[in-house]
Design brief:
mainly alpha, 4 helices, 89 residues
């Protein structure tokens, strides 16, 4: 596990803990958006790691479905990132 992956994992655990720790719904929504932004920021590391791990799946049909899901998920995540970037600008 590289240092980037370890850092991402620690940040993600802290953010998920924060989502469940806060009590007001507005803070839960804000925390969820923060988690999405962190995932978007580390998307290349996550995508390469998950793609690498998905190749260990022995069933080719399941492996293809997992890789298709990952591809679709990261395409949607990139669209989300572009939308947020456009809103900020």
């Amino acid at each position: 596990m590289t240092m980037d992956q370890l850092l991402f994992l620690l940040i993600l655990i802290a953010l998920i803990w924060m989502i469940f720790k806060v009590s007001r719904w507005i803070w839960r929504i804000a925390s969820f958006v923060i988690v999405l932004v962190v995932i978007w920021y580390f998307r290349e590391t996550i995508n390469s790691s998950l793609t690498q791990y998905s190749e260990w799946i022995p069933n080719p049909e399941v492996r293809a479905n997992v890789q298709q899901f990952l591809q679709t998920f990261f395409e949607k995540l990139n669209q989300f990132g572009q939308t947020v970037t456009n809103l900020i600008q």
